[in-house]
Hints:
The complex is a heterotrimer of chains A (352), B (366) and C (307). Chain A has 15 helices and no strands. Chain A has 352 residues and is mainly alpha-helical.
Amino acid sequence: MAKPGIWRAALRYVLIIIVVGVFTFPTYWMVTMAFKPRAEWSTAAGTIYWVPQNPTLENFATVLTEYQGQFFRANQSSAVPSIRSSIIVSVGGTLFALLLGTLAAYGLSRFTLETGDLPWYIALGRLGALVVVLLPFMVLWAYLGIIRYWYGIVTFTFLGIAADQLIGRLLARYYKGPAGSLAFSILQLRMFPPMAILIPLMIMWSAFRLVDTWYGLVAVYGVVTFPFVVWLMKSFFDEVPRELDEAAIVDGSSNWGAFIKVVLPLVKGGLASTALFVFILNWSDFLVALLLTNRDWPTIPVFLNTLVSSEIGAQHGPKAALGLLAVIPPVVFGLIIQRYLVRGLTFGAIKK
Amino acid sequence: MASIRLEKLRKEFGELVAVEGLDLKVADGQFAALLGPSGCGKTTTMNMIAGLEVPTSGDVYFDERRMTDVPPGKRGVGFVFQNYAIFTHMSVYENLGFGLKVRGCPEAEMRRQVAKIAELLQIGPMLPMNAGRLSVNDMQKVALGRSMITNPGIFLLDEPFSNLDAAFRAYMRGELKRIQREVKQTMVYVTHDQIEAMSMADQIAVMSCGQLYQSGTPDEVYNRPVNIFVARFIGSPNMNFVRCTYQAEDGRGFLAQKNGDARLPVDDRRRRLLEERRGSPDLILGIRPEHLHVHPQETPATLWRGVAYAMEPLGPKTIVHVQVGRDVVQVIAPADYRPRVGEPQALAFDLEYMHIFDGSSQDVIR
Amino acid sequence: MNNTRTFAASLTMPAQVVLLFIIMFPLLAEVYISLTAWTPTRGGNWTQAYQFWDWGRNYLDVFQDIAFWQAMGRTFLIVGVAVGLEFVLGLGLAFLFMDEFPGKRIFYALMLVPMMIVPAVAGYVFWLFFQSNGPLNAIVSLLIRGPFTVTWLSTDFTAMIAVIIAEVWEWTPLMFLIMLSGLVGLPEEQMRAATMLGASFWQKFRYLMLPMLKPIIVIALVIRGMEAVKIFDMIYLMTTGGPAQATETISIYMYKVAFQQVRWSYSAAAAMTVLAIMTIIASYALRPLQAPAAAGPAQAAGPNSME
């Protein structure tokens, strides 16, 4: 058994090295480029430098300091504002999503039943009915000219909630089965191509003067990533036996008290992991930031894009340096929470 | 059908030695039991016979052909796992036929064989059902059938009935034994239940801590255990053990109880053995509860005197715990014998049934 | 018990309100706009778009727009090929990583890294990579000992390949993770039983592993497919849909229509069409997720939630 075993193991090892090597090479390339002095930037065959000969930090300096004219667009002095923006917006979005999502997840975990399949056409039909019902109202509101004001929007929103409840009740009367679920709606969110709602979102945001502000971006990030929070935290809450809640209540605590004092501390680890997971998602966003920011609050990916497209000469070094800075948080956080990555990215459907 | 020979099998898992110096022979058509407590290495040994584990050293022979390098699937061995391991995503039919399917057996032939096995095990109507939904008892039948269908020369079963309910377990034991006798199938059966081993096996191999202590017929391991472990493991309730030392007086030998005053005369044969041996002066005397007789009054046959310490009425019989000196021995008494605690008791037994063990090496001194 | 009801409601209400607000409202506004012929250049605020009421002629235009359907086709092509590759690679890698070997943890961590690289940054890196005088061509030149100067990003066919490669690079780790967790969860005793019955590795794979992994595989493919359709970041940075429209996926198409051609109502109609198509496909495809996901009417919360 020993001899064929060794050959097999060796072959496997070689394969692993090759595959992992191939997958690591682009990252390696970016990392080394960030440390290469200008003289080594060439990527042409024959003059390429596989390993930096004279590693330097000047690329980082270029990208992080005030530097007019030669490298940056006139109205953007360094990458620092974009780094600041990315940090604030990602953290804010994460907190917002966590707040909304954890509450909803706890509700879903404790107060709903799993009753089997929800027919997909029912869920769709309900959505469609809602749109059809509300559309005339939208036009009416617009015609009346009130939709552009905050009270118009707020009243319309309440109208929407009411319509949704009505449809839900109607459906429950004629269709004996689960007629809809917050859980599934949340999942449906992920189906939308962002482009589909970004234009009206942009319009809405400019009406509220939220464009190119950090809070405007935080709001969108929060909503976009909140489904992940719900699914992740629900799976964590499900792991806490319901008896603990009940015991706390029997001991005289209120519902909120049970939640905050008993259950939450038990999912601290899950909460932290979810926070990191969502942070990575927010940090990595490009499209939303692209459309909703301009001069004041571009995030790192947006800034990187302007660099790439505005550049005439090949300034590989500084761009790679910025790229490297940009990927450090997600990579570090990702490795910290690697146990939960599968759970998060499959909406809790697969638990390792 | 094939014979099995294990030669100096040894298996290490890192620092841990799971099996050591194991020699065993199972004749063709024999039913052998590997008996021992959990963790004694019996399952590891079984896995080595099957090929699922590779021995660190030593060899496995089937019909004197060296099998140590042959991969598990090619040894012609049927294996029934403790947790059945049936394929829960397949039907019963597919489970039973799996062994044939992977050999490229044609469809019609497979159908025939599966029907035959299903008939034998009385699971015919379940063939189209999903195997994952069966009751535990039926799952075990499927596991058996699945291994049987390829007519393996050797059958290995790893505590196959330990998860079944008691009544069904007894039934399956009977069925298995019947099939084995009919087909003259060589079987190796792992269990920790000595009653099972005693009732089913032609040969019992008693193991503990990776070592094979004794291999023999049920009669042999019952009547002539080689050490205290085997003596204690076989038989229920367990054998009684009393510490004593040897005393010689007036040309006669006695065993004197250490924790009391009881004295037993020994016959000449034993006297000679005890005087000529080297070894620890500490001795342990063993006598089975079923070989002891208890009376409320002394008789000329009485060897020990004691008081009733406890009593377990078991219906068809009673177990009486008698305190002799500071030792307590168990005696099997008739169902209506119900002494009160504290009442004096007299014990008698046939000295032929007595075993003497070395106090430190734990081996027997005949 | 009322206390519990309001508690449950207050837990889920904020989320529902936010959802309704940020999803419903833009959605309805989008439908509204799509039914008109309004664009910002035509004047007026969007709320006055009713003045350009068109009864959905935009939708007709969308159906007849070749570029739109081509973009859809390209999107599905890229998604199909990329996700397929990711799956095969991920599964293969999972098999390689099943047992222990020296340095496993390091290789494992390295294997996870691509997934966590910001897609925009990855887009930039691959843009650099696929330059005609870039590292990739340099490597190939080394291997074939001759000049190799394919202009990856300027040729239709190769640009598509480059984009697919970038996508596969980024997301294979996810498939790898999922497949690995699936493989590790396979019941070991059943595998041993199959071995004892004489099954070869491929027989075990075909009759045991694949069927047992099927649920996980389906979930992985569906989720990955759903997310892949939205692909934007990397393509935008690598080719912006070019050369010409060779790598124009549906997201890029909509972006161009909205911001380069400034045809907002048309873009809204296109967006709605895509939304409808994707929602139908995805709802249908998400059925495997529903068994653990579906929730019935809330018991304690009563009918005052979105149930």
